[in-house]
């Protein structure tokens, strides 16, 4: 019986292989003699609808439907009331009139014969740009501006990708031929009617600059919610887990470790993947940025990015680094503690649109040049806060990290200053600075902490103060003070007179946006962003916190060149 069974399997397998060969390159469910069922639409609840309306269809085999589209726009299928004979779906905001098509698990499609006519709310622009920096982005603000589909700068058309913000859209002028020093007319086209003006004239075209208002980063991995999804790359490392070795996490409470004993060069260990879409259209100069620590040994990781289905990878070395910060990486990284790395997407992936949409980002842990000199060596790398930042992450001076205790308190109306805390979650490292008291009135300068060394800004382009802040749901405020050219300069975060956070947040402020003349014997009318600051103080003022609990926790205070996250 056993031999008979084996022969039967062998014959069946042979016949199956012949069948498979004869069906080569055919998608499952298509072009077969088997008549896979169609999910037929028999009726639709309406022939006209507004965006975001719910539409109900009846038909057959609707429980097998995987997608519903109107024209080319995919719609959200609603779970409630979904049966073999009935299905409801919600229209997206960016949808045009068209036929309704169902596509089911058998890859069979059915299109209803009637057109579904879509109507839209009107678009009202309340904020036009007055100037544009060539090659960079600008915004258009208003109501229902996400329904704008095209923007024209003179005769140059820019297609607007669908977004989720109904009150503001960002337009990139990368690749658009604009004439510096001249004015241009901007015109919009959208779905539905435009209420009020559809164009604005006299928009000045400015020369590109290295100074821009950076958008907040996209965090790819911070490892706070567990281990990332790991994919084997060929050779399993000895360690691939969070927080190996008991190092102090540089941000939050967790980091990710990969170690391999006595490895040779170019041994691939694992991948971690962040699926998209990852939209960088608001970015000016995207960089892949992360914190890394090889703990005195050597390790390596290299990025992969996918755009339009095309996957590429590249490596970390001076040729792909930002010219302003060549780290000396050479297909390997070596550090004795936590350091930043920040590589421009445009140099890593020159064939891609750096400010476009990416399908995914992967990081491959590979030995690279570690152990590539002939003798095997131990591979070790710890990594944290992998993100895409808008610009180079470039610390200039670490003002405070509070790892060595509290700075001296320069008292004014509060005799005792803050204390060092180590309670989780910390901002960066193991310690942070905590100050709390009951406010007795607004705009009361309680005291300050001072970095007393001079800070030379001559090599910077766009100096900022950047720090981590947490008020634990309470209210707080702070101001900054420095001295330059016999003038005291000071101010608070621009346009902010109190703030509240429910956890750690990064705050980053351009120095020239808030430092004003606070007196002195000097004659300078403006702070010099290329000069020398004689000292730097953080002043704890109540601002608009006129009563109740004032609480502020700060950590990792830097003077940075550009925004730092």
Automatic annotation (TrEMBL):
Pfam families: TIG (PF01833)
IPT/TIG domain segment(s): 41-114
SUPFAM superfamilies on file: E set domains
Protein name: IPT/TIG domain-containing protein
Gene source species: Natronoflexus pectinivorans
